[in-house]
Amino acid sequence: MERLSLLRRFSLLLVLALGGVAWGQRGYDRYLTPAEVEARLERLVAQGGDHARLVSLALTPGGRKVWLLEIGKEISAARKHLPAILVVGDPEGDVPLAPLGALYVAQQLLETPGLFARHTWYIIPSLNPDAEMHFFNKPRCRDPRNARPVNDDLDEATDEDGYDDLNGDGLITMMRVPDPQGSWVVMKKDARLMRKANPVKGEKGEYKLYTEGLDNDGDGQYNEDGPGGTNVGINFPHLFRPHRPDGGLWPGSAPEAFALMKFVTGHPEIAMVMFYGSTDFCRVPPKGGRKGAVDLNRIKLPKDVAKQFGADPDKTYTMKELIEMVKAFVPAGMEITESDIASFLGLGAMVNPLPDDLKYYRELAEKYKEYLKEQGMDQERLDPAPAKDGSPELWVYYQIGVPVFSMNFWTLPKPQEEKKEEEGKDTLTTQRIGKMSKEDFLALEDEKLNAYLKAVKAPPQFDAKKVKAMVQGGQLTPKKIAEMIGKMGGGPDEKGEEKVDPKMKALLAFADAHPGWQGYIPWQPYEHPDLGKVEIGGMVPYADNTPPATMIDSLLRGQVPWVFTLADSLAQLHIEKTKVEPRGGGVYQLTVWLSNDGYLPFPTAMGKKNQHVPPAVVQVIGNVAFLEGRDWTPVNSLAGKSVKKLSWLLHADKPASVEILLTSPNAGGDKRTIKIGGAS
Has residue 9 got a pLDDT over 50? Predict the structure, then answer.
């Protein structure tokens, strides 16, 4: 098997880095429609010759094709021997940068053939092309649903109340409507921003917020039943949520999602999946903390099952105890796993990543941050979105069991904190009062303390003199005062400011720093036929995840090559060493050492649990008799950078040639030929 040496890997990355200028010249300077993506794929196939082919996976409800580009040395082979990497772009269809990232991977592969020497690459640039068209259509609105008609509001019509571009600017933004029953207020520091009123602090809402549009069906709601559809990115089986208007009727009801599931389950050679979209497992490892329906450390058996195993139906058992209990009832040598028990008892889906897998995710995330720093791309930015219930990321990890990564090429940079004037140090805040000693509190000026009490909407009977008297008498402490005010709503934060939505704060900072970029529309008056005087404006659709087109090339050039580092970290099984020792009377002991040269284990911890990844197999083929061991030996797991020893006792009446064959659908393979009964 060919292995990339450190020198070879360095050379490949150098080629990619030096090729950066050419990339921009090939069209990575604007966003592409699904039709333009298709045209780009056709050019890549022509460029790839015998190493590339294009396959249509599905037809969307909007009549668009979901394309898969295959690149590698085995594209004509009915059965793949090389492990494969699957790259999927834009499952939710609302990240215009994602398809370009997938195309960029394909371009790098075809320009540097050494990158596909050890892997087959499957690339789906656009899993949800129907939704992607919302970015290019006029008016522009952000909607992750495909074009399948759905009666969202369950009335007598379908798709009858969508968005309306009232002010004719080609964008669907927000309407703020003065209303005494509203729950929103304009922020004092920046009138472009809105925040929820805090009734605990005596605030009263002044506005209602709606998406821009009309009540087309006269039901008192606005834009509740627009065209579409199913969000392909949440139409997968793991933690699928039924009865969501955008989630689909059942997992895989969207043809795009079904096609991906069919492809993945039909190609066991897939060793890793990379998603380009909203999540970013490369930078922020997948998080736990989801609450499952069952505590696997306190499992109660149904009465009939408990009776069958001689257990107590009123007692709870750990999963480990149940495995030991069941082992007594199955044939010797049969392996019982947590997955078997969970399936038998119907305990439901796993909801949190396994600790053994998280160790690798965290270590790789640290390496990725170092890589970004080397690329000059370590600017602090907003956190990416977490994986949603029903997402393909969760489905691949929990049910397919291979390593799954994701990359979000751009989120808004975190704005720099404003430097406060020195006198700001004297501003009273709830947090500061909570840290004061009794003496410091009593030393406060009455005027300053009264101003603070008024700001936090303290009851009028609590003025500075009365509060100080209670502290002096021991009825209150500064810490207790802070706790009481915190329960009331807290007052100003540590900086004495209103709390701002971090995304909107970052958006306005980025818009102010890039005057030519349209990310925010100032509020402008409009006479609405139903609502009267309103204002239209706010965040432009896609502004929080789609940078100016001039940034595309540098963002992709700096981040895309990491996928090749991840591919190089996958499990790589081979035969490290063999040894034949005569034991007399035509009997020989054969010992084989198997090695996993990859950083990652074979398979992942979740792959071991769900048993979806087939074991590797070592076959001993030749004219010999097996005294110990079998001619077909499964290898269920092998940790990264580790070696496993297998041995057989064989009998050969005369010299024989024996082939040792190591096969695995997604972790490589190897073979050796040895002599038994002669020179070995």
Answer: no
- Exposed/middle/buried for 18, CB within 10 Å: 0-12, 13-18, 19+? exposed
Q: Note the pLDDT of residue 23.
A: 40
Degrees, nearest 5: CA angle 122-411-271: 25
The yes-or-no verdict on residue 558 having pLDDT over 80 is: yes
Higher-pLDDT residue of 646, 200: 646
What φ, ψ does residue 537 adopt, rounded to 5°? Answer: 170, -160
* Residue 224 confidence (pLDDT) above 60: no
Residue 293 has pLDDT above 70, yes or no: no
Q: Which of 524, 519, 525 is nearest to 540 (CA)?
A: 519
What distances in angstroms separate CA 213 from CA 94, 176, 495, 528, 538, one per listed residue? 21, 12, 38, 9, 14
The whole-angstrom separation of Cα 207 and Cα 179 is 5
Distance CA 484, CA 488 (A): 6
- pLDDT at residue 21 is higher than 50: no
Query: Alpha carbon of 381 to those of 55, 100, 547, 549: distances in Å?
Result: 37, 21, 13, 18
Reference 132, options 157, 102, 168, 112; nearest CA is: 102
- Give the chain's mean pLDDT: 86
Q: How far apart are the first and last CA of the chain?
A: 22
Same fold, 30-135+233-290+355-411+548-568 and 573-676: no
Cα 88 to Cα 130, 146, 273, 280: the distances in Å are 15, 17, 8, 13
Confidence of residue 633 (pLDDT cuts 50, 70, 90): very high
In degrees, rounded to 5, the angle at the alpha carbon of residue 235 between the alpha carbons of residues 126 and 362 is 75
Task: Please give the average per-residue pLDDT across 67-85, as a whole number.
Answer: 94
CB atoms within 10 A of CB 602: 28
Cα atoms in the 13 Å half-sphere on the side-chain side of 678: 8
Q: Could you tell me which of 379, 378, 400 has the C-alpha nearest to residue 391?
A: 400
Buried b (16+ CB within 10 A) or exposed e, 377-407: beeebbebbbbbbbbbbbbbbbbbbbbbbbb
Q: Mark out the alpha helices in 53-206 (DSSP H runs).
A: 97-111, 129-136
Is the pLDDT at 46 greater than 80? The verdict is yes
Q: Is the dihedral of CA 463, 466, 468, 470 positive or negative?
A: negative
Give me the residue spans of the domains in the chain.
Answer: 30-135+233-290+355-411+548-568, 156-226+503-541, 299-345, 422-488, 573-676
Whole-number pLDDT of residue 420: 47
**pLDDT for 18:** 42
Say yes or no to pLDDT of 105 above 70. yes
Superfamily of domain 573-676: Immunoglobulins (2.60.40.10)
Residues with Cβ within 8 Å of 178's Cβ and at least 6 positions away in sequence, in order, are: 206, 207, 533, 534
Residue of higher predicted confidence among 454 and 14: 454
DSSP 597-641: -SSS-BS-HHHHHH--SPPEEEEEESS-EEEES-SEEEE--B-TT
pLDDT score of 295: 61
Q: Report d(CA 312, CA 215) in Å as an integer.
A: 60
Which CATH superfamily, name and number, covers 30-135+233-290+355-411+548-568?
Zn peptidases (3.40.630.10)
pLDDT for the residue 635: 97
Full-model pTM: 0.80
CA–chain centroid gap for 539, Å, is 24
Residue 644, phi then psi, degrees to nearest 5: -125, 140
**In a 10 Å sphere around its CB, with 0-12 CB exposed, 13-18 middle and 19+ buried, how is residue 117 labelled?**
middle
Provide the token pair at 201. Answer: 């602090």
